Amino acid sequence: MYYLLYAFFYLVSLLPMRILYIFSDAMFIVVYYLTGYRKKVVSDNLKNAFPDKAIAERVQIEKQFFRNMIDSFVETLKLLSASPKFLQRRVTANWEILEPFQQNKRSCQLHLGHTFNWEWGHHVLQMNTGFQVLVVYGPLTNKAFERLLLKIRTKFGTAFIPASDMKASISKYSNTQYLLGLVADQSPGKPAQSYWLNFLNQPTGFISGPEKAARNLNLPVLFAAIHKTRRGYYHAELSVATWHPDQLNEGELTSKYVQFLETAIHKQPENWLWSHRRWKRPYKSEYRTQWIGSGNPPA
User: Fold this and answer.
1) Residues 271, 30: Cα–Cα separation, whole Å
2) What is the pLDDT of residues 119-161, one digit of tens each?
3) Most buried among 60, 84, 110, 268, using CB within 10 Å?
């Protein structure tokens, strides 16, 4: 099964981007108008996040989000045959911000959100730095697709670490200068052990692991936001959060990240993954000891 998938998608990836985007436009019509894939989830998320926006404006964001999501899918397939030169033309960033950390031989954490196209982004990050880029991910249940996606994701040297075996996997790189990428905006699996604060107009849980690991190991932390400059072209904005997370108060690093992420989303709301069931675990009063947001926690 894997070899059939690989052969088919590799041939598809050889097509020029202008042809792939024609397929993407056709898929948008099917997904948005015919199947309605997670359309209600997206609509509800946008309504809760932006209650002050007019309905027409939210619908416009919704449609553009679906276009971006499907573009991201065909762009990910393109990675099977894409060259480094192809990607370097299409993804830019202020890479120079990483140089002091490399010169000081410091491994780092990089916190980012589900903004398109993170699949292209980590490859170009690996190409433009001296770090070994590590990315934590959740494995797929379908073994053939899991194998295919790992082949795509590790093509240019990025190492992917399963979240279920994160501690043991990272220990293999203890003598390597690494940059650990953490997509830190997923819905927490253990809400009672998560940090809680207001995010996009509603109480939201954030996993505490990235902050706690950074503080325990005193790893410098950077934030990244990816913006779509035009179709098929992206710019990543890197920002230094802290050189010394062990000097921050508990919850302070997560609060900084949430503010950074929310600013990026407001700048380009159609580029964030609204189809994710981000708020499937609502806030409960027993989580009040985990509240790190400003003001008092909700009743």
Assistant:
1) 20
2) 999 999 999 999 999 998 888 888 998 999 999 999 999 999 9
3) 110
| Torsion of Cα atoms, 134 then 140 then 142 then 148, to 10° | -30
Domain boundaries, the chain: 2-290
Mean pLDDT of 236-256: 97
Residues 6+ apart with CB under 8 A from 117: 71, 72, 75, 76, 91, 226, 228, 234
DSSP 240-276: EEES-GGGSPTTHHHHHHHHHHHHHHHHSGGGB-TTS
Contact 196, 291 (CB under 8 A): yes
Q: What is the mean pLDDT of residues 227-250?
A: 97
Q: DSSP string covering 100-135, please?
A: HHHHTT--EEEEE-SBS-HHHHHHHHHHTSSSEEEE
Q: How far apart are CA 202 and CA 191, in angstroms?
A: 15
Query: What length does the chain have?
Result: 299
pLDDT per position as a tens digit, 51-109: 999 999 999 999 999 999 999 999 999 999 999 999 999 999 999 999 999 999 999 99
Cα angle: 198, vertex 201, 295; to 5 degrees: 40
C-alpha–C-alpha distance, residues 122 and 114, integer Å = 12
Q: Is the pLDDT of residue 4 over 90?
A: yes
Contact 220, 243 (CB under 8 A): yes
d(CA 296, CA 39): 34
Q: 289 vs 152, 194, 213, 252, 279, CA distance in Å?
A: 42, 10, 20, 15, 19
